[in-house]
Automatic annotation (TrEMBL), chain A:
It comes from Rudanella paleaurantiibacter. InterPro entries: DUF4249 (IPR025345). It comes from the Bacteria. This is DUF4249 family protein. The lineage of its organism: Bacteria, Pseudomonadati, Bacteroidota, Cytophagia, Cytophagales. Pfam families: DUF4249.
From TrEMBL, chain B:
Residues 1-25 form the signal peptide. InterPro entries: Beta-barrel_TonB_sf (IPR036942), CarboxyPept-like_regulatory (IPR008969), Plug_dom (IPR012910), Plug_dom_sf (IPR037066), TonB-dep_rcpt-like (IPR039426). Its main location: membrane. It is a multi-pass membrane protein. Residues 143-240 form the TonB-dependent receptor plug domain. The keyword Membrane applies. Gene3D superfamilies: Carboxypeptidase-like, regulatory domain, TonB-dependent receptor, beta-barrel domain, TonB-dependent receptor, plug domain. It is found in: Cell outer membrane. This is TonB-dependent receptor plug domain-containing protein. Keywords: Cell outer membrane, Coiled coil, Membrane, Receptor, Signal, Transmembrane, Transmembrane beta strand, Transport. One of its GO terms (cellular component) is cell outer membrane. GO terms for molecular function: siderophore uptake transmembrane transporter activity.
Length: 316, 840
């Protein structure tokens, strides 16, 4: 019931970047006051079948060591279970200097990987442009992406807070500090891990433009704004001794738009839903009349910082 | 621009002259009724018709001259005028719900002023009146596609949480739908919500909703008359292309002070009205009404709010006031105002509201020429603030944002009452000031402001129209409106890429940006808007009607959500956004059926077809708020809407009320959406059935203090876009539609039953107090009506997993890649309520 009301207003608040914690508190209050009890019910639905398409999950970073690309096939929407791997494909990356990197899938699970010859070597370099090539099912797919600059995470601190204002439960709220580069627009994605586990609810898909949520904020060169600094918290905050890792990843403008759309499309219900639409893709079939693919090719430089909820990290 | 206006004036004056000559030419008469020869001296009888109880002017009263077979209808101010040759006549003044009066008059050598007061009929009939309208109006009046609802009827219809609501009552009429309950506004004959001109005493209201869309801004205690015009729109009106919702406020009791009030679950209401400048003879030169409402859920909840939530605000209020003053027989002024606001928030908050003021001056030049001049101001604004209370601790980190639309207008409307013709002409000038958004943000002390430039525009219009009684059976109404819209500087005008595939973002070509100075015209749009209606009476009880109209609209509500949000921004037509234009033809058959008593059933069937041009749509992932280059995210398309409306109304009897059924379809065609093929618009509903039953057991018997009402609403589900397939990306399951279709499914059917019972207080002798209790249940059988069906990955849960003690905690996020279809219902239960109303 609560989540419905969140639908009503959550959109508005996401749009202006209101922190999650206060949002739910406010909505709870609104709900209890207005007794307008919305309701979500899981129902059976019969859906049209669509053709099976190639789906590409290619997110390459400048981290040392192995890089992986996952190829799967699209499946009927309500067919649960792991995605069927797209096997037998030829997958390669070429950088601007003409170097090529071959990705292989010896165990046929759809994960194609490349390993450097030396463990201190890497595929990704900031400023380089990469071309992805895939041969699958008699079709050739290509995609291009640039690896952009990324700032370092300065620090992470914690404050003891109520999980939400009307709860007695308390936890530790994390806040991380990053300063955007001045000048040309920068696009980032934030990921955070609690005790090593990636937090990946739809709300945890955080994208940043300069230091704010969108190009409409004029935040070039600023410290990330507070709603973003405090966006790295699970629903019930952190507990003492938890470890928190936050990652900042540079992305391209196209990837920023893609991720924003993806977030919209995976949490798009309620009164203020926008018309459902396909998320964009940058995977292009060389034969324009051939079957299209879905998914996205992203190259991303990554910086991270880890902190533990201990007395010295907790601010009063 | 000036030359266009000169042309328009010449044309309008020419048309006026032409009409005059038509009048003279045809007044020789050929319908067999006694008509004087052309050129014979004519005198005019005119005056105001008022309610004897409180002195309110009555709109739409029939004043019929038996001997001459002619008559008139009072205008929006209760004024009528009839031209007659000298002689003795009987004026028959009639209005449903009021006692018919027959007034003998003699016209000799001069014009005659005759004001009339009508008394309400006895209780029995009054209580069962469905509408205050002259008898046979549906058949005899030229207007078609018009629905009027008396406030007394609106008050009888079962209401959500007991709150009587004008817009919710409108949604029970044929041709009116909504995208779902709780959604702002309403859709008329397949038009968007921004295509309704909502007028409150002639000032436009930009957001007619409180609490998103659950309640409307009109306080029923202050409303006198509600009229919805869906087609055959006279040339007097313009600026929106789908409908006119004309809400007229009460003038205030001119006879004695009166207090009305009510206490409900959401609002409490109080209004006060009284005469002004009362003279010794008991008549007053004026009167006023002040009516206020405030929701008080927050007051009740206050003791339960602690910590950060202490002092949270969530309320809405509105204040409606009106005063009138009769300077003399020829001049009356009216001043009306509305102020309303919704406020939500604790630390973070947002609020929105409308303010309107209209000043009107009625001037009777002579008995035949009536002028109403309206000057109005209307403002809609909203604001978001991350730090509503301006706490010291937040002074380095906050976000504030406001947006508004303001307009000022002057609008002279002339009415010239001629024999068998009523000529209307006038003009309107509206000045717009749009503030699309000003945002200020601070991050650890660094303050940035981001503002979109204000946009300015002026909309001018001239019109002329005539209502002509061609013969006893045939009546015509025709007119022409010319509107000219100028998008003005100061400001920058952008040019956008043209070589982008349809449906994708067009980026600005910055080298082509042009800067304009204050007063420069960036872009002009002009439109001729012809209007035509005809009525042919087949016999006393039935008529055929036909109408055509073209309307132009220069402002657009930018919204791509299912229900419009209070944060949606209005934008003018610009060099990149073309004005919306609609053409509509409608035809109808109207009939009264009698079963022993006169005029017991009114039946009508109407069909319509509407063509819409330049309908806004949006690219996928459009960025609509605070976006300087918004126009690059907009698409433009065509629309069509057609349907049939069936309406049966029973005016009298133990059970009265109406049944309306609409069969309709509304589609859009936008390059870049749905593969460039037609698709159903998001508010398209094939079938809509509404039944309203008002039951009055009468003034005797055990149930004499009770009356009852019920509504049943049934409609097809709205269209929805369902995915075909899914794929996984970075752990998220993403829906995908292989053909990228729009609105390829429909959500399940909607139906709902509401009931209400009113218990009137005992009448005590000597007490003037009048009170009642209203008990109602909304959604009686607790149907979980779908508002939408959407698709999602099964929500992640937090599970407890034993972990090593030094990690301190046992919680772990559990994510599956299962997907599900979810039905979202706004109301899942029956909602009972009780309201106490009083009057003294």
């Amino acid at each position: 019931m609560q989540s419905n009301t969140q639908n009503i207003l959550g959109r508005l608040m996401t749009q202006i970047g209101w922190p999650q914690k206060r949002r739910s508190a406010y909505l709870l209050a609104l709900l209890s006051t207005l007794t307008l009890a919305g309701c979500e019910t899981v129902i059976d639905a019969k859906l049209d079948q669509g053709p099976t398409q190639l789906s590409v999950d290619a997110w390459l970073t400048d981290a040392l060591g192995e890089q992986r690309i996952r190829l799967t096939q699209t499946a009927p929407y309500l067919q649960n279970g792991a995605a069927t791997p797209a096997t037998g494909a030829r997958v390669g990356i070429r950088d601007g200097k003409g170097r090529t990197y071959l990705f292989t899938d010896p165990d046929n699970d759809g994960f194609y990987s490349w390993r450097p010859t030396s463990p201190t070597d890497t595929l990704g370099r900031i400023g380089e442009t990469y071309t992805l090539g895939i041969e699958y099912g008699g079709q050739q797919y290509v995609s291009v992406s640039r690896m952009n600059r990324v700032p370092a995470v300065d620090s992470i601190v914690f404050r003891e807070e109520k999980v939400n204002p009307i709860s007695e439960e308390r936890g530790f709220q994390a806040e991380f500090y990053v300063k955007d580069f001045p000048g040309a627009p920068d696009y980032y994605r934030i990921r955070f891990f609690r005790n090593g586990q990636l937090q990946n609810r739809p709300n945890d898909l955080i994208t940043v433009y300069d230091a704010g949520f969108s190009s409409n904020g004029n935040t070039d060169g600023l410290l990330f704004i507070r709603p973003i600094r405090q966006s790295i918290n699970p629903e019930r905050l952190y507990a003492r001794n938890d470890t928190v890792r936050v990652e900042i990843q540079s992305i391209t403008p196209e990837a920023f738009f893609f991720l924003a759309e993806l977030r919209t499309q995976i949490s798009n219900g309620g009164l203020f839903a926008t018309p459902p639409a396909n998320v964009p893709t940058n995977i292009r079939n060389v034969n324009t009349n051939g079957p299209a693919a879905t998914g996205f090719f992203v190259t991303s430089a990554v910086r991270s910082r880890t902190a533990r909820v201990t007395d010295e990290m907790i601010r009063k | 621009m000036i030359s266009i206006f000169r042309t328009a004036w010449v044309l309008i004056l020419g048309l006026a002259c032409l009409t005059q000559s038509v009048v003279l030419a045809q007044s020789t008469g050929q319908n067999g009724l006694s008509r004087p020869p052309a050129g014979a001296a004519q005198f005019t009888v005119s005056g105001y018709v008022k309610d004897a109880k409180n002195g309110e002017g009555l709109i739409g009263v029939s004043v019929f001259v038996k001997e001459a077979g002619t008559g008139a209808v009072t205008n929006n101010y209760g004024y009528y005028a009839i031209s007659l040759p000298p002689g003795s006549y009987n004026l028959v003044v009639s209005f449903v719900g009021f006692q018919k009066q027959t007034i003998p008059i003699t016209l000799t050598t001069e014009n005659l002023r005759k004001d009339v007061e009508l008394s309400e009929e006895g209780r029995e009939l009054q209580e069962v009146t469905v509408k205050a309208e002259r008898e046979e109006d549906n058949v005899r009046a030229i207007e078609m596609s018009v629905n009027k609802i008396d406030v007394r009827t609106i008050q009888r219809v079962p209401a959500l949480l007991g709150e009587v609501d004008v817009v919710r009552a409108i949604q029970l009429l044929p041709g009116v739908t909504t995208v779902g309950e709780g959604a702002t506004g309403f859709n008329v004959r397949g038009g968007n919500i921004d295509q309704n001109l909502v007028l409150l005493d002639e000032a436009p209201v930009y957001n007619s909703s409180h609490l998103f869309g659950f309640f409307s801004v009109f306080n029923p205690d202050a409303v006198k008359d509600v009229k919805l015009i869906k087609g055959g729109i006279p040339s007097l009106y313009g600026g929106r292309i789908s409908s006119i919702l004309d809400v007229r406020l009460k003038e205030g009791n001119a006879k004695k002070p009166e207090v009305n009030g009510g206490i409900g679950l959401i609002f409490s209401r109080l209004s006060y009205e009284r005469p002004l400048f009362k003279k010794a003879d008991g008549t007053a030169r004026g009167s006023f009404i002040v009516a206020g409402r405030r929701s008080y859920a927050d007051v009740l909840a206050q003791p339960f709010l602690t910590g950060d939530l202490k002092g949270s605000s969530f309320y809405f209020y509105d204040l409606t006031a009106k005063a009138n003053y009769r300077i003399n027989d020829k001049n009356t002024v009216y001043l009306s105002g509305y102020l309303g606001r919704d406020v939500f928030g604790s630390d973070f908050g947002f609020n929105w509201g409308n303010a309107t003021t209209s000043l009107r001056w009625n001037h009777v030049f002579n008995q035949k020429l009536f002028l109403n001049t309206t000057a109005f101001y209307s403002n809609y604004d909203y604001m978001l603030d991350s730090d509503l209370k301006r706490k010291e601790e937040n002074k380095n980190d906050y976000f504030r944002w406001k947006s508004r639309i303001i307009n000022y207008s002057i609008k002279p409307d002339f009415t010239l009452f001629l024999r068998n013709n009523t000529l209307t002409f006038g003009g309107q000038s509206i000045v717009y000031d749009f503030e699309p958004g000003t945002a200020t943000g601070a991050s650890l002390g660094s303050i940035r402001t981001f503002s979109l430039e204000n946009k300015y525009a002026i909309e001018n219009a001239l019109y002329v129209g005539n209502e002509q009684q061609v013969s006893a059976r045939l009546q015509l109404q025709y007119g022409l409106r010319y509107s000219l819209f100028s998008y003005l500087g100061p400001g920058e005008a952008y040019s956008f890429q043209t070589d982008v595939p349809p449906g994708e973002r067009r980026f600005p070509i910055l080298s082509q940006t042009r800067t304009y100075k204050r007063g420069d015209v960036i872009k002009n749009y002009g439109n001729w808007e012809p209007r035509f209606s005809a009525k042919y009476e087949l016999n006393e009880n039935s008529s055929l009607k036909l109408s055509y109209n073209r309307l132009a609209q220069y402002i657009h509500l930018v919204s791509n959500t299912t229900a419009s949000t209070p944060l949606d921004v209005w934008t003018p037509s610009t060099n990149n956004i073309r004005p919306q234009v609609a053409d509509q033809v409608a035809g109808g058959y109207f009939r009264n059926l009698k079963d022993g008593r006169n005029n017991t059933y009114e039946v009508s069937v109407e069909v319509y077809y509407k063509w819409l041009q330049n309908q806004l749509d949006y690219i996928d992932g459009a960025d609509l708020l605070l976006n300087k280059y918004l126009e690059g995210d907009l698409l433009s398309g065509r629309g069509r809407a057609y349907g049939a409306e069936f309406y049966v109304k029973k005016n009298t009897g133990l059970i009265n009320g109406w049944v309306s059924y609409t069969l309709g379809k509304t589609d859009r065609l936008v390059d870049g959406i749905n593969g460039g093929n037609w698709f159903a618009s998001r508010f398209d509903r094939r079938h809509t059935l509404n039944t309203v039953a008002l039951i009055d057991p009468g003034s005797t018997g055990r149930l004499k203090r009770w009356n009852f009402s019920a509504t049943f609403a049934l409609s097809s589900g709205t269209p929805a876009t369902f995915p075909t397939t899914r794929f996984e990306y970075q752990g998220y399951v993403v829906p995908h539609n292989a053909d990228n279709l729009r609105n390829n499914y429909r959500i399940p059917v909607y139906h709902r039953l509401d009931l209400a019972a009113t218990l009137k207080g005992r009448q005590r002798t000597g007490k003037r107090k009048d009170d009642n209790w209203v008990f109602s249940v909304y959604n009686v059988y607790a149907r979980k009506n779908p508002f939408s069906v959407f698709f999602q990955q099964e929500p992640a849960t937090t599970i407890d997993v034993p972990r090593s003690p030094e990690l301190g905690d046992t919680r772990r996020l559990q994510v599956t890649n299962n997907t599900q279809a979810v039905r979202y219902s706004v109301f899942a239960t029956a909602i009972p309520s009780v309201t106490y109303n009083f009057k003294f």
